[in-house]
Amino acid sequence: MSQNNLNTSAPNTWCPGCGNFAILNGIKKVLNELSEEVCPLEKFVLVSGIGCHGKIVDYVNVNSFYSIHGRSVPVAEGIKMANSGLKVICFAGDGDAYGEGLEHLIFAAKRNVDITVIIHNNRLYSLTAFQYSPTSPLGFKGRSTPNGTIEPPLNPLELMLASQATYLARGSSLKLDLLMRLFREAIMHKGFALVDVLQVCVTFNNLYEYYSKHVYELENHDPGNFQAAFNAIREWDYNSDARIPLGVFYQKEAPTFEDKMMSFPADIESKDSKIKEFLSKRM
Amino acid sequence: MSQNNLNTSAPNTWCPGCGNFAILNGIKKVLNELSEEVCPLEKFVLVSGIGCHGKIVDYVNVNSFYSIHGRSVPVAEGIKMANSGLKVICFAGDGDAYGEGLEHLIFAAKRNVDITVIIHNNRLYSLTAFQYSPTSPLGFKGRSTPNGTIEPPLNPLELMLASQATYLARGSSLKLDLLMRLFREAIMHKGFALVDVLQVCVTFNNLYEYYSKHVYELENHDPGNFQAAFNAIREWDYNSDARIPLGVFYQKEAPTFEDKMMSFPADIESKDSKIKEFLSKRM
Amino acid sequence: MRDFSILIGGKAGSGIDKSTLILGDLLNQSGYRVYIYRDYPSLIRGGHTFSIIRASQTKIAAHRDKIDFLLALNKETLDLHLTKLSGDGKVICDVELLKEAALPVQTMTLGVPIVKFVKEENAPEVMRNTCLIGAFAKAIGIKIELLEKILKKNFGKSIDVNIKIAKKGYDASVVMESIRLPAQDALPLISGSQAICLGLIKGGLQVYVSYPMTPTTPLLHFFAEQANDFSLKVIHPESELGVILMALGFAYAGQKTAVGTSGGGFCLMTESLSLSGMSEVPAVIVLGQRPGPSTGLPTYSSQSDLNFALYAGQGEFVRFVVAPGDLEEAYYWSACALNLAWKYQIPSIILTDKNLNEGIGNFDVNETGEIKEDNPYLWDGTTDYHRYADSKTGISPMAFVPEKNAVIKVSGYEHDELGITTEDAAVTKKMQDKRLRKEKYLIEELKSFPTVKTYGDDKQTTALLCWGSNKGVCVELAQTLGLKVIQPLVLSPFPEHAFKEAMRGIKKLIAVEDNATGQLARLVKIYGIAVDDTILKYDGRPFTLDELEEKVKEKIS
Amino acid sequence: MRDFSILIGGKAGSGIDKSTLILGDLLNQSGYRVYIYRDYPSLIRGGHTFSIIRASQTKIAAHRDKIDFLLALNKETLDLHLTKLSGDGKVICDVELLKEAALPVQTMTLGVPIVKFVKEENAPEVMRNTCLIGAFAKAIGIKIELLEKILKKNFGKSIDVNIKIAKKGYDASVVMESIRLPAQDALPLISGSQAICLGLIKGGLQVYVSYPMTPTTPLLHFFAEQANDFSLKVIHPESELGVILMALGFAYAGQKTAVGTSGGGFCLMTESLSLSGMSEVPAVIVLGQRPGPSTGLPTYSSQSDLNFALYAGQGEFVRFVVAPGDLEEAYYWSACALNLAWKYQIPSIILTDKNLNEGIGNFDVNETGEIKEDNPYLWDGTTDYHRYADSKTGISPMAFVPEKNAVIKVSGYEHDELGITTEDAAVTKKMQDKRLRKEKYLIEELKSFPTVKTYGDDKQTTALLCWGSNKGVCVELAQTLGLKVIQPLVLSPFPEHAFKEAMRGIKKLIAVEDNATGQLARLVKIYGIAVDDTILKYDGRPFTLDELEEKVKEKIS
Ligand SMILES: Cc1ncc(C[n+]2csc(CCOP(=O)(O)OP(=O)(O)O)c2C)c(N)n1
Ligand SMILES: Cc1ncc(C[n+]2csc(CCOP(=O)(O)OP(=O)(O)O)c2C)c(N)n1
Ligand code: SF4
Ligand code: SF4
Ligand SMILES: [Mg+2]
Ligand SMILES: [Mg+2]
Asked: Atom 6 in ligand 4: which residue has the minimum CA distance?
């Protein structure tokens, strides 16, 4: 393995013990591995939203676009459409991608743009110091809902399945090996891939023990089977106390948006003559 | 039945033969009926987005808020949360509600706010003179995609089901009776209700014959059965040439957002003393 | 006739647009210069729509109150526009319509059995237009050969019937007033939207991303149609939020990208406009104005978003804002706006409006001015790459992914030279200074551009101050009245120096604007320029020459 | 000591916020007036955070460069802030930390075995704060009883251990400098956010809708906590787009609603701001400024969104924009902003910033000025209801659903008096005139409000021009230097008359702003007021008294 630690000059400002470290360490390893085996490092672009999660791009010495809250996905799409040879990875928060910018996620999935979206799903807004998010359970007492929320969470994976995403998985910051496998697969998957990571926020929502007890890895599951994927995704609704499956729920081969995009030979030289030609038709 | 024709001074500017007329006539009749039987007319509020569909609020002499493109749903939510005794009906376009403002729709469903959303789904942008929409079939040649779209449509009902909507139905501008039944039910349903209306745009996308051949009314379908609803919704994906079921796909009783909202007695009089009380604690 | 106007009107969706183009073409090919104004409501079929086609010996970009030929496809057109008929104005329409309308006896009319002819040929209703055009062509003495040639250019498979019907109209008509044919070559007849598109292409456009919104929808349609010819990627995403963020993604990856929208969509882009300012990822926005607030009058025109364009987005950053006033300027400045966005790594706004975008006129590509194609300042690879390296001009060298020896990090947070987030007070100030410093150099560079234009001579002491699409009407009127015109094109950074030069000797300055508050008048006050009077119009319609003449005369008398 | 400052610092998440409040309380209860500045990075735990608590005999709203007591919870605090220590400044911290730090010999220090004490009690680390506070209380000669009382007020179940530890600190400490206790009553100590919230409540707020964003998140938290007491509905929706549109829905149904956000979120609200302008559905927006562009420095302060607040949204419409400068103004004007929004059926923006919102000081509710509770102009039911009935003032009577005898139609399209869409030129002009006419009456009414304040006397010829949170530092400094201060509070509609009154006799005007381009200086130019010099700061931190003094002296020497 490469000796590149991928560190930057940025001091890490996550809370000690934060689940984001697992994502950071995992992605660094995976990037190192992939850059040796598959694709040089300079072809990777990381894109992030705003939240604790977003800081990750500051911590990895790879091309990046630190965008705005909820909007990392369309940026990633633009980059990929500009150059389909790039590997574009979005890091987004649950408030960020399942709330503020949910629409973009759905359309990126529908288009099957070949990007990878990794959700740091701590099931709250952490950087703004503790409010409920679209995946907080019913009754969650954040600072904007001190008496508990009165709306149930979304099941983002169910939504993504309905949006025709072609790779859907769930990992957890507790299981680094699985996480790395999923990152790797998602990045290598040709098409829109989303990994929902149950990322423990030790400060505001320490579900470490809860998850330890509830998560299990999917076995004998056929990710090619839509109905099976649907059932597995619905086993846990982000609200009840059910068992929480981890692993790949769904995977499908389908042509990507970029592949179908018309690309015309960039014939810059003849630009002037083409303008003239157009004008002559209007004479 | 009441003699109120509900007309306004606005001249109707839809194309002759437009499917919007069915929605207009249907809703007028239903409003008249409901106002006699259930709820006085002044308790209805119509909200619309921008598009050909949006003009409907100009044509019905009932309280209305003509909002902006894609954003009728949160306006409707606000009105309902302000006064749960009102009956709030949104008229939205497919570009409007499934595209520009999709996120609002998902969150309104998740919250189960008791509003009714009627989608004039002509499967294109009509008022801006012919572009593809989120429900246009793959390969659709609108003016922004003259070579055909390269992205498949969304199945909005599948998305809405994943968003926990509690009433989901599909009507068609070809079947006025069914449409009226669905409008009535949706309005009376306590919770978030959406009726996707296959509204024929005679000018840009005249699917009159196509729909005549493909639609059928659901029979022996149990809207209380989630899996059955899921299957029926997936029978047609807005893309393929399958049969197109009409009717109620899903219905469920669940507490509404407004019901769960804390409402505190408006004790305006004691405001000043409460401010003083708060301040004294900071002394 | 040296200068005359035709109004053709009917129901929306009844073919007025196409007829307008054919009429324009007819006059263009006859050696006239042409200007076309299109008036249509926000609906698809049925409402009233009309066009005014004005023909003149010299280049024009305004229309007049009075109509010389009224071509009516329905009674509504007669009802609504008859009062606009000039003293010896003529009405051409179906003979039955004429009977029904019962026009004043003195009106010169020509009735042709249009409906009958179309029926006889079993042709669709829309071909009534062709018949009417045939009748008109004869009425002004145009040769049948020219008419045929132009019809051929404009119709595809239905050409035979169209020619047949046109001829019937022609034959049933009489020469009412033979026009003199000016001896000059035709010039291409294009719309403002097309001029902007071609200018962007000229400037090196590679990608266009847009969500349809009047009055920039025609740009989306044009680019989508022409994508192949001009090697463009054209994307229509889910919303304007998606549009501008995708565009920033494209630009980050090195592709020159533009977006187009109008007020409401621009609102949704403001957060990313600010992101462009901070991240220094270039953005080019075509902002087409229409009357607001909110949805307003979607298919009409306005100049009420100047302030918004100047100050949109949180925080302070350099932006380029330009408001072209005619087709040549639209072409030239669209190319420049793209180039300057990339040279200075800033957002550029091309501020236009419905009148400019949908107005059609003669375009002379040789009169646009020379367009310098500056390459952006690129990293040369000799040093470690710092995306935001500080520099004398504030401009940092660019590099684009993938670049083997560079890690390219951009950010909307305040950041250091490497692009890593900072909250340090000194670094914050340094980086903000770096970014803002670019304006100084941009102002310097712009001194060699025609940022402020004047018309008329230096002896004149009264000037009309105008911007954008009011140029045409102001310049033409000022010539008649012997006034000067001052037209700032660049509005940010404001060309203070050039503007003050232009003001030399001016004692009275009258601002002419399509808004209710005089936004340009307000802007120039910041630079110590007092505007003595304003002529404001905000009903969505452009000034006609005559209307403006009356208003200006009031102000200068 | 009549005026002294304490700095307490440590790692984010280590209890500094709470300690700050207790220290403030301690001094407040001792008869001092207090001002607290909080400095924290955008992270949850681990980075460096500190507060400055300044105590004075008279009301203050600024902090100083020099620190009299440096209370350090970690070495970083010593390293970063030691240079700020005044000549006889004192350091209080753990005894081991003192050894490690090796401070210059002349530094007056007090080492207490804080870490040891906390360990002895098996208490959590966060209680080191309490120990430090105990040591400090003794050092300035505060009685143990007062300390106990205040601790009791601030701690719940852990109070016993806290008192134990505080006493250990107290006992291990020595009196370093006994402070004189001013003989005045304590005043409530609140933050700017709280003052705004209470003002809105006073104005009749019924609903608050917000998506969290620094620096207005504290308003959301406050309202959510207090919802019960003040009978509020508090909603946190999916995005700022949802926020403002829900708010318009609430307002349409007759409920007085406010929203809060910062620059990026405000961008997302601009389209609906314009909708509020057109539909005349009132909106109240608390806009908290922080350094941009884009995400910028999220937890710091700025005044760089003035222009954006003035011109955001397409089209032209009347808006009320006010920038309060201290707690009393925040309270008073928040109430007024709500009232005026409803009286004139317009959007109101309360323009604030992080320094005002998170600064904590003494609030005197009796000094805020009288708040008139105007009811909106309501339909009396005697005539047919026209939502947009034309009127002399441009204000149309309001009615709210459900209303038996009225159909209430509002719209973002241009519309007639009934609210039905129009594209007619004359109606368009009439309705735009109606809406804009309201500004005239608003300006008139505002003449009886303190829209522009001045400080100092009329003989002074040099004035500092400031707005918003710079009021505190400018007024205090101007007193020392014998300068006048001019502070416009209302920024739209601009109080031209009052401002020109305030300018009487002024020969030199120096603008002091927390931005890089001098936005207020630019604004007043429109009204013919020349600003002679500017003092600008844009690193996110507020001016200290001393820093500003130095800069002002440079400018006036
Ligand atoms: C438009 C906008 N609204 C609000 C914010 C403030 N904000 C910053 S981070 C954040 C929430 C973050 O939650 P999430 O996306 O779940 O990220 P986490 O901090 O939990 O990783 C918010 C609301 C913003 N930066 N931009
Ligand atoms: C923010 C914004 N973007 C774009 C537009 C322009 N616009 C008006 S209607 C419309 C599309 C309408 O499509 P749909 O919602 O399907 O309604 P339809 O006309 O088909 O009924 C668009 C894009 C707008 N008004 N506002
Ligand atoms: S607040 Fe939570 S998510 Fe954020 S860094 Fe701390 S532990 Fe991690
Ligand atoms: S364009 Fe289509 S949807 Fe619009 S009014 Fe005409 S037929 Fe109806
Ligand atoms: Mg989160
Ligand atoms: Mg549609």
From this structure: B15
Q: What pLDDT is attached to residue A1?
A: 40
Residues in chain C within 8 Å Cβ distance of B69: 264, 295
Q: Which residues of C69-96 are buried (b: 16+ CB within 10 A; e: fewer)?
A: bbbbbbeebbeebbebbeeebbbbbbbe
Can you tell me the distance from the alpha carbon of B58 to that of D144, in angstroms, rounded to the nearest whole number? 72
Task: Tell me whether 0.95 is exceeded by the ipTM.
Answer: yes
Task: Label residue B2 by pLDDT band (50, 70, 90).
Answer: very low
Residue type, C159: I
Where does residue A37 rank: exposed (0-12), middle (13-18), buried (19+ CB within 10 A)? Answer: exposed
Does A131 sit within 8 Å of D212, measured CB to CB?
A: yes
% of chain B surpassing 70 pLDDT: 97
- Looking at the DSSP bridge assignments, the partners of residue B118 are B91, B195
D419 touches chain C (CB under 8 A): no
Q: How far apart are CA C408 and CA C557, in angstroms?
A: 63
Mean pLDDT of chain D: 96
Would you state the pLDDT for residue A104?
98
Q: How far is C141 from chain A (nearest CA, A)?
A: 21
Q: Ligand 4: distance of its center to the CA of B18 in Å? A: 5
Q: Which contiguous run of DSSP H or E holds residue A198?
A: strand A193-198
Which stretches of chain C score pLDDT less than 70? 1
CA distance linking residue C67 with residue B1, whole number of Å: 52
CA angle (C68 as vertex; C67, C74 as ends), nearest 5: 70
Token output for A58:
């500051």
Written out in words, the top-level CATH class of the domain with range B3-252 is: alpha beta
- Type of residue at D152: K
Mind listing the pLDDT tens digit for each residue in A60-79?
999 999 999 999 999 999 99
Domains of chain D: 3-171 (3.40.920.10), 191-367 (3.40.50.970), 452-556 (3.40.50.920)
Q: HEC string of B72-118? A: HHHHHHHHHHHCCCCEEEEEEEHHHHHHHCHHHHHHHHHHCCCCEEE
The ranges assigned to domains in chain A are: 3-252, 257-283
- Work out the pLDDT band at B143, boundaries 50, 70, 90: very high
A99/D238 Cβ within 8 A: yes
CB contact under 8 A, A260 and B150: yes
Task: Dig out the tokens for C254 from the structure.
Answer: 């090195």
Give the pLDDT score at B1.
Answer: 40
Of B3 and D472, the structure prediction assigns the larger pLDDT to D472
Neighbours of B185 (CB within 10 A): 18
The stretches of D86-205 forming alpha helices (DSSP H) are 95-101, 114-120, 128-139, 144-154, 159-172, 192-203
C385-396 pLDDT tens trace: 999 999 999 999
With CB atoms and an 8 Å threshold, state whether C236 touches B129. Answer: no
Residue A266: the pLDDT is 65
Instruction: Assign 3-class secondary structure to D246-297.
Output: HHHHHHHCCCCEEEEEEHHHHHHHHHHHHHHHHHCCCEEEEEEECCCCCCEC
Nearest CA residue ID for atom 4, ligand 2: C213
B47, B50, B117: residue to mutate for ligand 2 pocket, most atoms within 8 A of CB: B50
Chain C: give the shortest CA distance to residue D473, in Å.
Answer: 19
* Contacting residues of D for B83, CB less than 8 Å apart: 253, 401-402
Q: Which ligand is nearest to the CA of B18?
A: 4
Its pTM surpasses 0.90: yes
Query: Which of the residue ranges A91-105, B166-180, D144-158 would you say has the lowest mean pLDDT?
Result: D144-158
* Length of chain C counted residue by residue: 557
The tens digit of pLDDT for each residue in C357-379 reads: 999 999 999 999 999 878 899 99
CB atoms within 10 A of CB D366: 7
Q: Mean pLDDT over all residues of chain C?
A: 96
